[in-house]
Amino acid sequence: MNDHERPTDDVEPRSTDEAERGPAVAGRDENRDGQSESGMAAEDPGSSSKPPVAKLDVVVLSADGVSVPLEASPEPEPQVDVIPFERALLDGVCDFAGRRLADVGIVPVFADERPLQGLGGHLDWRCSGYLSELIRTGMCSGDVGDALLLPGRRGLPTKRLVLFGSGPRARYDDRAAEALAVRLIDVARGLRARDVLLALPAQSRDRARTEVFFSAFLAAVCTPIGGQMSAGSLSTGPRRSPMQWWIVAEPDMVARLRRIKDGPPRATSMSKH
C-alpha cells in the first residue's frame, strides 16, 4: 500500500510479512457456446427439469414436545479493565491463570511523536528500537488511519501488535479523540481479537482529553457493529467468552478512568441497632 493511499475509516491493518498477490480474476460474462449471457447453461426444452431441492426447517422441541423457535443469542458484552502501567506488564497481562501474552496489542502513534512515548516507548525499548526503525523508514507514518500489523516478537507482551496512526498532536482535539477510540475498536474487531492490550494515546497526561477518549471508547465498545446486532454478533451455539480489553493508563489516571467506567462509589446505609 502506497503512502498516498492510506484509508481513514474502516482500516484493515497492513502486515509486514504479507505476500504479494497477483491480480484478482475478473468475472467472465462473455457469451460462450451453450451458455447464456449470464454464464448459465441454456436449458434444452426437451430435457427433463431437475427435481426441486428440499428445504429443511430446523425446530427445537421443548421438554413437553412442543416446538419452539430457534433464537440466536447475542455475544456477551466485552469486559474492560483499566490497569496501571508497570514494568511487569512488558511480560504479559495477568489474569486468573497467571501472566500470559495478550492476543493483540494496539499502540496509537502520532505523526510527530519522536521518540515513542508511554507504553509504546517501553515496547520499543524491549525490542531494541524495532518500532522506531519502522517509523523512521516510513513503514508507519502516524497519519490518521494508518495501521501497521506486526507479528509477535520475543520480549513483547502480545502475540500481535498494531501501530495505529493518530495524526499530528496539535490536531488531537476532543473530536479527534472520539474518532480515534472508534477506529481502534474497529481494528480489534476486524482482527477478531480475543483480548486486547490498548495503550492510551501518548497525550494521556491531558486528563480532560483522556476522559473524552475513554468515554467514547466505552460507548463504542459495547455498541454492536452498525448500531444493531449483526450476523457476526449472534450465535445459536455455545456462548463465546467475552472479549477482554486491558486499558493501560498512567498510575495517577487509573482511579479516574475506573470511576468513569463503574460510576461514582455508592453510599452504603448503616442499619440502626
Protein described:
There is one protein chain. 22% of the residues lie in helices and 20% in strands. It is α/β, with parallel strands linked by helices and 273 residues long. A seven-stranded mixed β-sheet has the order 1-9-10-8-11-13-5. Helix 3 (174-190) packs parallel to helix 4 (207-221) and helix 4 packs across helix 5 (251-262).
Topology:
Blueprint: E1 14-15, E2 60-61, E3 67-68, E4 73-74, E5 79-84, E6 93-95, E7 98-100, E8 102-109, H1 118-126, H2 130-136, E9 147-151, E10 158-165, H3 174-190, E11 195-199, H4 207-221, E12 234-235, E13 244-249, H5 251-262
Parallel strand pairs: 1-9, 5-13, 8-10, 8-11, 11-13
Antiparallel strand pairs: 2-3, 4-12, 6-7, 9-10
Helix pairs in contact: 3-4, 4-5
What is the H/E order? EEEEEEEEHHEEHEHEEH
CATH architectural designation of the domain at 75-228 and 239-262 = 3-Layer(aba) Sandwich
Number of helices: 5
Question: Measured on Cα atoms, how large is the radius of gyration?
Answer: 25 Å
CATH uppermost class of the domain at 75-228 and 239-262: Alpha Beta
Strands of the largest sheet, in order across it?
Answer: 1-9-10-8-11-13-5
Structural class: alpha/beta
Helix content range of the residues, please?
Answer: 10-25%
**Which term fits the overall shape?**
globular
Give the CATH topology of the domain at 75-228 and 239-262. Leucine Aminopeptidase, subunit E, domain 1
User: Number of DSSP strands?
Assistant: 13
Provide the low-confidence segments as ranges: 1-8, 18-43, 53-63, 68-73, 228-238
Cα distance spanning the termini = 72 Å
Portion in strands: 15-25%
Average pLDDT over all residues: 75
CATH superfamily of the domain at 75-228 and 239-262: Leucine Aminopeptidase, subunit E, domain 1
